[in-house]
Model the fold of this input.
Amino acid sequence: MNKPAGKRKNSVLDWVVALLILAALGGLAAKIAAGFEYNWNWLVPLRFFVSIDAEGGWRAGLLMQGLLMTLRLAIWGGLLCAILGLIIGLMRTSNLLIMRVTSLVFVESVRNIPPLVFIFIMYFFVSNQLLPPKLISFLADLAEDNSWFAVLFCPPDLIENFLSGLLCIALYEASYVGEIVRGGIQSITGGQWEASRALGMRRWLTLRKVILPQALRKIVPPFTNQLISLVKDSSIISVISVQELTFTGIEVATTTGRLFETLLLISILYFFLCWPISLVLRQTETKRGSQSLA
Amino acid sequence: MSFPNFTFSRRFAWFRQSRWQAIGAILIIGGLAVFLWQGGTSSEYNWQWYRLQRVLLPGWRNDVWTWGPLVGGLKLTLILAAISAPIAGLIGLIVAIGESSRFLVLRMLAAGYVELIRNTPLLVQLYLLYFMFANFFNLERVTSGILALALFEGAFAAEIFRAGFNSIPTGQRRAAMALGFNRLQSFRLIYLPQSLPLIMPPLAGLFVALIKHSSIVSVVALPELTDIARNLIADTFLTFEIWLTVAAVYIFLCFSVSTSIRIWEKRLLSRLGTQQSTAR
Done:
């Protein structure tokens, strides 16, 4: 840190001024809101998040189901895009031209299409070609019989939507992860390759034992960043009617008419999904930075 | 590509080998394309590429010689990107300066803005801006679209600027102080020129991302390329033809923009007299 600010400790006065300004901003916002005479009613969207039923038990509302769907998409999508991204990254750095060209065409074409357009195209193609109806009915049966499957993946009636949304988001993010992996592998100096060659290791063995373990350190921070993007981009697949947080949010907003509260609530939920990841990421970055200085 | 090739093959032999691989790659890509094509035709899809000229090419429409509606959409996409990009850059610069400010309040505001924007989806921000603030402040649809894009990319631009300024060694600031430069002077004459090589490439990437993200504003029915495409599909049922065309247009657009920016950047850097090697 080369900033003078970083070295100065925050005085009490600093905090007082900050609080005063924040209070002024809040007051201004309240005044604007009051000026437009909008009756805030936070209970309505909250009731769609969790509600208490007649027997006094907690019940997950529509918004909670949407949040769970987003979480599932994030977890399984993250896993899938990591695997696909690793494969694409290895193909991008392969010494076979055929691998390099194929992966290059995939990555460049996916990265230059807007996510929305990509999702529309993939949705029409994926639902026809990549997802056979047999697989969907099989998974739906599985979800109906095993409750753990429904919790881990998806309720049986939403399985087709879920799978196509998951494939869309995983393929889209995989092209970015592939570039991250390629960057990580190529950041390892040629000396490492030559040394393992001198030790008589083959290319695949070198990759597994020497290159990838070193590259992983450089891959993990940008990959985590990509995970945040994945959570955020998963909101786009609401346009192909995958019942995740944004979709259910819009549904609740339009049915209750409580547009502002619901939208604010889902943005708060997204924020608390992504913010912890970015905090952890920032911590590791500063830690690594101080290590490299020392 | 910069990989050591361990086989001591002669150049000619390598060429012969790679030629077959190139043919193989083309075959694989072609096979994938055919596979996707089958996805359309398996449900007995009736390909009607000839109808595309009516939505794309110029012609007489309602007794006026005009380009097709898709071209009009492309125009709005370009306008959105062209207007919101400088605003995003300005926001990014201001926020980055705010983040390195001496005053805690400014730093808190800047950091709060960046965290808030970076950790919520653009779609949700757009809905919020369009349904909420556009109502409160009587914003037009185009204005709220531009504002959403600029505010979103501005946070990312701020991070890019901040990383660029942080890369300048402390000695430079001390040297500037020793020479009696004030803050503005040292920023303008020392920080900005030196961090420019580090800032430019990601900023160019951000501009391409801006073009791509502009498709998201179609959900509030702003008639840009994606929105026009969706409407046309609803009218004409040319689902695959129009989506593939739109994808090709976006690929062409993003690819040409990023390539031309790369060329311009190289020229700028050579004029500044900084080597590319110091940038990376």
User: Anything to note?
Assistant: The longest strand of chain A covers residues 50-52. Chain A is about 80% helix and 0% strand. Residues 1-7 of chain A have pLDDT under 50 and may be disordered.
